[in-house]
User: Fold Phosphoribosyl 1,2-cyclic phosphodiesterase from Thalassoglobus polymorphus.
Amino acid sequence: MSVDESPRMTLLGTATSMGVPMIGCQCPVCTSKNPKDKRLRTSVAVHNGDSTFLIDTGPELRQQLIRESIEMIEAVVYTHGHADHILGLDDLRIFGFKKKEPVPVYCEDAVEETIRRTFSYAFDETVKKSLHSRPMLTFREIGLRPFELCGLTIQPIRLIHGRLPVLGYRINDVAFCTDVSQIPDESWPLLEGLRVLVLGAIHFEPHPTHFNIEGALEVVERLQPQQTFLTHVSHRLGYEETNLQLPDGVELSYDQQVIML
Assistant:
């Protein structure tokens, strides 16, 4: 099987909600010439053979899909309903138009409620339907049980983001855990034996709703994954400078990074 056919995830965006560079900021990271310091908001593409699904739909989704030459997606899986993780949803219109059927959206009830409220025009039955004027979606409720998608088993993992329950996901020996400040006791066993952990870490200073670098490294110390990539990164963390301060086996992630599953 070629690399193109092998299961893998592409990190489409690795920034916090403000993105990097941040609007109006002239700090060293925002003005950096290093392409790995240019970060779009969070989305992930998971590929298996000819099938691709997304984890989250950040505000730059159209730009990300064009950049990666992704022509079709089979579904979307959501971690939570915050704006920087859902606002690209309207760009799913093209896929419903091409497929002539709704795009499956896998999420918890609270996320569905947020999407229905935020994109109310997509669900307004009083408006004449058009195949391309609004996204066609069908919701698939998920909880903490594993489910199958595009030939892969997806294991949801309960995480806490400030006070908000959110989901991370494990696929084979890779886990994607963005936007997290606490891991509940019952979730630690689901994160054992990882080859790769993609873990949110916003910056060095403490934060009320995200792990900082110190908190993320405590998770790494407990889980001992073979490799950790830190994501949901703010403009306070330059790629090269930060990596020099991280222990072996831990690095910042970057946009367009490919992780084999």
About this structure: The first strand starts at residue 8 and ends at 13. The mean pLDDT is 95. The helical segments are 61-67, 83-86, 93-99, 109-118, 213-223, 239-243. The chain has one domain: 8-260.
